[in-house]
Structures are given as structure tokens and as C-alpha cells.
Amino acid sequence: MMIYLFCVIIPMVLGLWAQLRVQSTYKKYAAVGSRSRITGREAAKYVMQKAGIDDVEITSTSGHLTDHYDPTNKKLVLSEENYNGTSLAALGVAAHEAGHAIQHKVGYSMLKLRMSLVPITTFASQILPFVIIGGLFFHMLGLVKLGVAVYLILTVFQLVTLPVEFDASRRAKIELQSLGIIDGEERSGVSATLDAAAWTYVAAFVASLGNLIYLFTVASGRSDD
Asked: I need a surface site. Which of 43, 63, 86, 99 has the fewest CB within 10 A?
């Protein structure tokens, strides 16, 4: 029970806290307009232009915080609120995604590693529900051991994701200020938004690691029976 508490419940609580923090921080700075009045789309465009990137399409999509960079199709996708928004939150998120485009252009090693892990991680995510149901609920030792392998893949992926996300945020903060899109006083709002978002990736890694340790403990215990 103690192992379940530390490996599953506590990481779950951390994940909920991280989600609440990013939502509240984003909401706070989405209400703070930037002095430059530049939209998220324009910010992403200027950041990429400075880096010599002219082959990435900037598009918008529905949903809340659905922003992402698609390296396969070279698309920078912003949620409508950030695509058209001029808030500090919108600029931070847009520049963060542009940071991923820069990583792609310069061949940032951790992004390349993350991209190479996507196929096997996608497969692991797809079979995870069957592994959990069969292994933990029906006590099938083989599936529990497979679950260990699945969570090992997911944990490695989450670990690799951390430097990719932190580096994109670092690039965003630097470029927004160097381009004059935000001033020194506005940097704190952008930083707060991006730092809060970073906690969701930390929480995802901790949760994946916790599940890995828990399943490994279960598999070891059943092997000894």
C-alpha cells in the first residue's frame, strides 16, 4: 500500500496540481495584453524569421492550449486564442512553439531523439490499457512484465521530453525580448506562463516513473510467489 501511495497516488496528485497551476497561470496572463500588441501568429513568425526559417506553416486550431509544433509536416499549430491573441500568455506559448521549430532547424539532438522514439512510444501507449487490465486486474504475470517494458519506454520518452521543452522555453524568452516583442517588465509574465507549463512535463515524467517502479515491484513480488 505504501508503494502504491508513493509511486501512483502522489504522482497523480502532482499531475493534478501541475494542471491547475498551468491553467490558473495561463488565465492570469491571458488577461494581460502586451504593449507591442503583436499577435501570437506574428510573434511565432518573427522568431522563426530571425532564425532563417521560412518553410514552416503557421496555422490555427480549435481547443484550449492545443498548441504544438509538427516536425513531420513542418507546421506550427496555435490554438485560436493564441493565434489571434496579443496577451503575454499568447506570445509566450507561440514563441515556445517557434522554439521547437528552431530546434528542428539546428538539429537539436534531444528533439531528434524524441522524434525517433515517437513510433515505439505511440505503440506502447496503444497497448497500455490492455496491459493494465490484464496484468493488474486479472493477475497475468506475463502482462505485468510487459507493462514494465511499456512504462520503461514511456518513462524514457518523458525524460527526453524534459530538455526539449525547457530548451524551447529558454529560446522563447530570449527571442521575444531580443526582438523587442516584450520588454523587461513583461518578461516575468511570459516566464511564469512557460514555467507553469513546464511543470506538466515534470509531473508526466514523475507519474510514468512511479508507475514503472510500481509495476516492477508487482512483477518481482509475483515472480517470487
From this structure: 63
> How far is Cα 225 from Cα 216, in angstroms, rounded to an integer?
15
Residue listed under C-alpha cell 498548441: 67
> Which H/E stretch holds residue 53?
none
- Set 97, 165, 175, 186: catalytic member: 97
Q: Answer positive or negative: Cα dihedral of 101, 104, 108, 110.
A: positive
Q: Where are the domains of the chain?
A: 2-224
Give the count of alpha carbons within 13 A of 212, CB side only. 17
| CA nearest to 118, candidates 158, 165, 82 | 158
Phi, psi for residue 61 in degrees, rounded to 5:
-145, 160
Cβ 183 vs Cβ 174: under 8 Å: no
- pTM equals 0.91
The three three-digit cell numbers of residue 159, written as one number: 525524460
Cα–Cα distance, 80 to 143 (Å, whole number):
42
Active site residue 186: no
Q: 128: exposed, middle or buried (C-beta count within 10 Å: 0-12, 13-18, 19+)?
A: middle
Q: What is the pLDDT of residues 88-147, one digit of tens each?
A: 999 999 999 999 999 999 999 999 999 999 999 999 999 988 887 776 666 667 787 888
Pull the grid cell for residue 113: 531523439
d(CA 211, CA 6): 10
